[in-house]
Automatic annotation (TrEMBL):
SMART domains: HTH_LUXR
Protein name per its UniProtKB record: HTH luxR-type domain-containing protein
Alphabetical list of CDD domains matching this protein: LuxR_C_like
Signal peptide: none
Entry annotated with the keyword Iron-sulfur: no
InterPro entries: Sig_transdc_resp-reg_C-effctor (IPR016032), Tscrpt_reg_LuxR_C (IPR000792), WH-like_DNA-bd_sf (IPR036388)
Keyword tags: DNA-binding, Transcription, Transcription regulation
Domain HTH luxR-type: 122-187
Organism: Deinococcus radiotolerans
Length: 191
């Protein structure tokens, strides 16, 4: 975030009014404003009650508080940044998750990064990335576009696209968010 950019706006839609008030207080103390009435928020903060009937996202990133089930659902619902946190997340974790999701990143607690049952069983030893693929994966985790990654690496944009496709294949994913999430889960990158 640059000095000129505004912090992300957040719409808190939690089932518990008491929890929602506490979360709004934490966010307000960090300079994160609520979305103005009628405006689309940058980040939608939800809990498990929203999972039963998810509302349209209209371009908003999502931060969920509650169950681990979100980590399996949000990649399909939200092509933007998203985060899943346990209900007992610290204020610092919540604030970081809001900023990360607004920046297009994926955030999960380390304890939730264990592969779910039925996963393809990949571990870091099964995935062999070239040094350049590791560089590209790290830049994906920072939320950079192909054009910006190419400029940072001093290569063409088509070269970055080639490496991104190689990452998708090696990691068994179909999206940038999936590549970052799998890279984190396998310990190939940290955010």
């Amino acid at each position: 975030m640059t000095a000129d950019s505004a912090p992300p706006t957040v719409l808190v839609t939690l089932g518990s009014a008491v929890l929602a008030a506490g979360v709004r207080t934490v966010l307000g103390g960090a300079g994160l404003a609520g979305a103005p009435e009628g405006a689309d928020p940058d980040v939608l903060l939800v809990d498990d009650s929203w999972l039963d009937d998810p509302a349209p996202l209209d371009g908003a990133a999502v931060v969920s508080l509650g169950s681990r089930a979100w980590a399996e659902v949000l990649p399909d619902l939200c092509p933007h940044g998203w985060a899943c946190l346990p209900a007992d997340a610290t204020p610092a974790e919540l604030i970081a998750a809001v900023h990360g999701a607004a920046a297009g990143l994926v955030t999960l607690p380390p304890a939730w990064l264990v592969a779910p049952e039925g996963d393809d069983g990949l571990d870091a030893g099964d995935v062999s990335l070239t040094p350049r693929e590791r560089d590209v994966l790290a830049l994906l985790a920072e939320g950079l576009s192909n054009k910006r990654a190419a400029r940072d690496l001093g290569v063409s944009e088509s070269t970055v696209k080639f490496h991104v496709q190689a990452l998708y294949s090696k990691l068994g994913v179909q999206s940038r968010a999936g590549a970052v999430a799998r890279g984190i889960a396998l310990g190939l990158i940290t955010v």
